[in-house]
Amino acid sequence: MIKADDILQRYVAGERDFSRADLSGVDLSGAKLSGTNLIRANLSQAELRGSNLSGAFLVVADLTGAQLKGATLIIANLSGADLTQADLSAANLSEAVLTGAIAQKANLSNACLQGAILAGTNLRQSNLQQANLQGANLYGADLGGANLSHADITRTNLRGANLQGTIMPDGSIHD
Hints:
Blueprint: H1 4-12
């Protein structure tokens, strides 16, 4: 298992590929692992169960297939990040930023967010196609313009959520 200090030192030295790394339980709160479309942090298939990524900057990071079950990502910035097929079940993403610009939308397609806490989270323009949101808490979340087509929102708390322009699971667009 890699320690937080090792990751940060390697990142500062220019290393960007941490795919398949075992980072279970690591504290990377406030870490700045942001990138660009050309140079981005690669945490695909990484083991991040129970990790603390609160306040971390993971803009355009590649987290495809990452295991983030039970991770804490409160106020984390994941704008434009790729979380395709990531396991975020029981993760806390309260007030996190998962927005997307036209060119780079945060991608959570086929992600597992079962029982996740997304209260107050900014998911504007995000791709949540076929995501598992069963029992997730999206109280007060901003889903404006997000794509939830074919997502499972069974028992999902959407109270107070902004759904304006959101593509719903059945393909309809919410007013």
